[in-house]
Design a protein that fits this description.
Radius of gyration: 20 Å
Strand content: under 5%
Helix content: over 70%
Distance between the termini: 27 Å
Number of helices: 6
Number of strands: 0
Length: 166
């Protein structure tokens, strides 16, 4: 079960990372177009800045799940380091479950948030803000799934493995 969770998490993460690469490439191109427009060509495009904002929002929120897979998010382990192994595992599992609950909550209420964006207009060609707002439930859903997968993969032993490497 642990190996299956690890493989599924890695597979899902590869797909997310491909999307992140494409979003970052689009962001770089968009910013360069905005710079060229402003300082050289004076085309007076009104879309590069808001598009960059929406691309950045999607990129940052999707990257959360990649950080979860690698356990690269910041963690304060001062108290956990002093606990016996059994309590340490329990505290780390509880931490993952609390984070899962947060992302599940964010996913659930993010759906309504994204739906409310459908009736609002973006500054880019008068398009709906729905796709931009959808970043919240999509990213929260991915983060919740990845948290469950790494919880099954690590079973609270992630910090024990890190300490063994030191």
């Amino acid at each position: 079960m642990r190996q299956l969770a690890a493989r599924l998490g890695d597979y899902l993460n590869r797909g997310v990372e491909i999307v992140l690469i494409l979003l970052m490439a689009a962001l770089v191109v968009d910013v360069w177009i905005g710079v060229a427009d402003r300082y050289y060509f004076h085309w007076q495009f009104n879309w590069p800045e808001p598009l960059a904002r929406y691309l950045m929002i999607w990129t940052v929120l999707l990257a959360i799940s990649s950080g979860i897979v690698r356990r690269e998010h910041i963690g304060l382990t001062v108290l956990i380091d002093h606990l016996p192994e059994g309590l340490r595992r329990a505290a780390l599992i509880l931490s993952d479950l609390l984070a899962f609950a947060l992302f599940a909550y964010l996913f659930w209420f993010g759906i309504g948030f994204a739906a409310s964006g459908q009736t609002r207009q973006a500054m880019i060609f008068g398009l709906s803000l729905g796709p931009a707002y959808a970043a919240v439930p999509v990213a929260a859903g991915l983060a919740a799934v990845q948290l469950l997968l790494v919880l099954l993969r690590d079973l609270g032993g992630q910090h024990l493995e890190e300490q063994a490497e030191i």
